[in-house]
């Protein structure tokens, strides 16, 4: 028997979100039904809604969900009805990268999460008036009052922590934090530069502030976001609208350059500046995603000093350990995620989209 719920549907590329009644399929053996409490709005959602990725539309997006488990399939063992959960990406669990603790690089990551719109077996999870919709987005499609969630997307969390305060952990926050902790791994005296002070960039700043890094530099063009970056742990800020990035970083580092750079903007010109600003043996982590097929020109000889350019998906995090650790940091006040969040009732999803596009909201979170 199908499960009725209400969801925000994107009818076609570039269309607004429309609230309407839909039906969820019955949970399969490794799925759960989750009553949504909150879900973050991410630039990836907007990119797909615009038609920039080949996700099947009409469809239901949303991939930073948080809620309460209502029912589970017969083979689900990690959660039970009543458990509080944060929802993240899904993965096969069987490929080399999944078994090696790197599920964000699952061999079937793209179809399972971003472009498939269906379960791995090809069956749909959401329908409307008998017609199948694109669903199973990141194993969850959480822009709905209830979501049918893949077991590997479910992370059980501390029920004492308000779900609205931790919904963004499933994607944007773990991406920024993972870029610093899992890739750059700063040591004493390091200089970490974060290009872009949006939700991912500011998460990277907060993460860097919990490491031995000596210099933490936030770069953006919005003065208010640079001010917030300082409050969240940046030791220096650079207004890219007024200063040359290379000159500014040379001044901050005494000409040595940056040991680590997190590039969140998706702008290839900014990425190139970041690579040029690296110190010998420095690493730039590519997080921002421009349209598919985008290329960037690099000075090959400039890389021979041991520079590394590393692509990153979802912080290269193993979610079952990583997300509960972040929840504890939020609970203890050491990861002040609330400074990034603006809440909106679910019915005001289009207002949240507009505010995010206009830069008025760093991390919109929809509440149910």
List keywords for this structure.
368 residues; seven-stranded mixed beta sheet; 11 helices
Give a structural overview:
- There is one protein chain.
- The chain has 368 residues and is of the alpha/beta class.
- The protein contains eleven helices and 18 strands.
- Strands 3, 5, 6, 9, 10, 17 and 18 form a seven-stranded mixed beta sheet that branches.
- Helix 4 (172-184) packs across helix 5 (199-208).
Straight-line distance between termini: 24 Å
**Class by helix and strand content?**
alpha/beta
Strand content: 25-35%
Give, in order, the helices and strands.
EEEHEEEHHEEEEHEHEHEHEHEHEHEHE
Largest sheet: 7 strands, mixed
Q: What percentage of residues falls in helices of 4 or more residues?
A: 25-40%
SS element count, helices:
11
Rg, nearest Å: 20 Å
**For this entry, what is the oligomeric state of its chains?**
single chain
What would the principal axes of the Cα set say about the shape? globular
Mean pLDDT score, rounded? 96
Give a brief rundown of this model.
With 368 residues, the protein is of the alpha/beta class. It has helices at residues 43-49, 96-99, 109-115, 172-184, 199-208, 223-231, 245-253, 268-276, 300-303, 319-331, 349-357; strands at 3-10, 17-24, 31-40, 59-60, 65-72, 84-87, 126-128, 131-133, 146-150, 154-156, 191-195, 215-220, 236-239, 258-263, 278-286, 308-311, 341-345, 363-367.
């Amino acid at each position: 028997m199908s499960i009725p719920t209400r969801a925000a549907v994107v009818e076609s590329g570039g269309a607004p979100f429309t609230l309407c009644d839909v039906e969820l399929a019955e949970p399969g053996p490794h799925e759960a039904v989750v009553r949504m409490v909150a879900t973050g709005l991410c630039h990836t959602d907007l990119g797909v809604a615009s038609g920039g990725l080949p996700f099947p539309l009409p469809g239901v997006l949303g991939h930073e969900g948080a809620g309460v488990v209502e029912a589970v399939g017969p083979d689900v063992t990690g959660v039970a009805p009543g458990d509080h959960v944060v929802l993240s990406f899904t993965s096969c669990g069987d490929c080399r990268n999944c078994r090696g603790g790197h599920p964000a690089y699952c061999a079937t990551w793209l179809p399972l999460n971003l472009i498939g719109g269906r379960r791995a077996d090809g069956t749909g999870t959401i329908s409307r008036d008998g017609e199948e919709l694109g669903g199973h987005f990141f194993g969850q499609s959480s822009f709905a009052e209830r979501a049918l969630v893949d077991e590997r997307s479910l992370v059980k969390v501390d029920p004492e922590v308000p779900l609205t305060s931790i919904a963004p952990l499933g994607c944007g926050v773990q991406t920024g934090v993972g870029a610093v902790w899992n890739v750059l791994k700063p040591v004493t005296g390091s200089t970490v530069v974060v290009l872009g002070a949006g939700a991912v960039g500011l998460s990277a700043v907060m993460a860097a502030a919990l490491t031995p890094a000596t210099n933490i530099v936030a770069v953006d063009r919005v003065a208010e976001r640079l001010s917030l970056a300082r409050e969240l742990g940046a030791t220096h800020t650079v207004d890219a609208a007024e200063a040359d990035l290379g000159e500014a970083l040379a001044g901050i580092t005494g000409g040595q350059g940056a040991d680590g750079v997190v590039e969140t903007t998706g702008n290839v010109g900014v990425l190139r500046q970041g690579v040029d600003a690296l110190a010998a043996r420095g690493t730039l982590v590519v997080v921002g995603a421009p349209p598919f097929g985008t290329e960037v020109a690099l000075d090959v000889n400039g890389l021979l000093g041991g520079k590394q350019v590393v692509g990153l998906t979802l912080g290269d995090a193993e979610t079952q350990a990583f997300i509960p650790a972040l929840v504890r940091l939020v609970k203890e006040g050491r990861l002040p995620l609330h400074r990034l969040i603006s809440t909106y009732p679910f019915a005001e999803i289009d207002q949240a989209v507009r505010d995010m596009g206009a830069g008025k909201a760093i991390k919109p979170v929809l509440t149910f």
